[in-house]
Amino acid sequence: MPRIARNLPSWATLHVISRGNRRQNIFEEVPDWGRFLKSLLTETTSAGIVVIAYCLMPNHFHLLIQASLTVLSSTMHQILTSHAAYMNKKYGRVGHLFGDRFKAYLCDPELGLKPLARYIHLNPVRGGLVQSAEQWAWSSHRDYLDLNSKSPSGRNLLMDRFGGDEATAQIAYQAYMAPGIKPRAPRPGEKVPLGVLAAYVEREGGHKPGILKERSRRRDILGTRMKFIELAIAEGYSVPEIAAFLCLPPSSIYSNRGAL
Question: Which residue has the higher pLDDT, 219 or 143?
C-alpha cells in the first residue's frame, strides 16, 4: 500500500514521490521519458486527478496533485506497473523497477502550492542536471512560462496564487522562481544518464529528439554528436558504452574524436 496518512479528507492536495528500486534509474533513453509522461498525464486526467506540477528525474519523479484518495492508489499502480513492464521488456530485465511504494504527503492548498511547485520545478537544478529550470524538458515549469498553455490540468490553481491576469501572474511566477539554487556537485560514481545528456545537446543544438542516433553527416549534427561524446566521456562513460548508445562501432568513437 502507498504511504498515505490516515484520516485525510476524501479530496486532498498531495505531494507524491516515487523512486526507482534501490534508487536505480527509471528511464534510459529519451522515448522512455516521453512515454511515461504521456501515460502519467493521460491516466491522471482519466481518473479525475488534477496535476498542478510535475518533474521527472532520472531515478524518481514528483507530482503536486489534487485527488480523490479512492482513485489515487489504483491510478498510481496502473502508471507504475505499465512503465515497469515497458522498461523490463525493452531492456530485457526482470524484477522491480520502482521501490515498493509511492509516498503521498498532505499539503495545505492555501499555503503549500507555491513553495512546493518551486521545490518540484527546481529539482533538476539542485540535482546538477541543468543550470536553470527552463533547460529541463521533463517538468511542468515550461508550461507555466507559456501564456497559451493549458497544461498541466491544475495550472490555474497555482497561477491564481500569484494574482492578477494571466500575464501579471506569469511575471510574478517567474520572479518567485528566480532565486537561484546552486547545482550540487555530483556524488562519487554518479552519472547523468546518456539519454538525458543526448536530450540536452539535441535541444541545445535545435535538433529533433533522437537525431544523434541517425547516420546523418550534416556538419551541425556531427558537431552536436561530438559535443555529446565529450560530455559523456567527462561523465565517466566508456567508449563502448557511448558507442552502444549511439548504435555505432567503438572504433568510430576512438578514431573520430575530431570529426564523427
Answer: 143
